[in-house]
Amino acid sequence: MDNELYLRRQDDWLREFESLCLRCGKCCGIDQDPCSQLAKTPDGRYTCKIYAQRLGAQKTVSGHTFTCVPISEVMKKGLPYSSCGYLTRKI
Ligand code: SF4
Ligand code: SF4
Predict the structure, then answer these.
(1) I need a surface site. Which of 4, 19, 30, 84 has the fewest CB within 10 A?
(2) In this structure, are residues 47 and 28 in contact, taking their beta carbons and an 8 Å threshold?
(3) Which atom from ligand 2 is nearest to the alpha carbon of 22?
(4) pLDDT, position 84
(5) Which residue, 33, 29, 28, 27, is CA-closest to 80?
């Protein structure tokens, strides 16, 4: 497989993986003190205003600092959201 095809397939797989997200906002703190970058969409779901640049230091609405990490990192420690699409849906 040439490199370009490999990268394209990797992108396709990542998009498919990310499509499992239900955009419920739970992992961005919607049930407590949400991240200041979290926004509600017209369909009642949630989105990150800076998704491509999200990783690293962020602040909650009340000003608490935390580090945004990929969901795959959170999954390694066990996702605490039982309704999360990454646990309930399949590719
Ligand atoms: S920066 Fe991270 S925690 Fe904040 S809304 Fe975006 S994905 Fe969620
Ligand atoms: S808890 Fe899961 S389904 Fe909900 S926004 Fe986070 S990653 Fe997506």
Answers:
(1) 4
(2) no
(3) 3
(4) 95
(5) 27
Q: Which atom of ligand 2 is nearest to the CA of 85?
A: 3
Measured from the alpha carbon of residue 38, the closest ligand is 1
Distance 25 CA to ligand 2 centre (A): 6
Instruction: Report pLDDT digits (tens) over 5-53.
Output: 999 999 999 899 999 999 999 999 999 999 999 999 999 999 999 999 9
* Atom 2 of ligand 1, nearest CA residue: 68
Q: Which two tokens stand for residue 47?
A: 């989105």
Contact 64, 32 (CB under 8 A): no
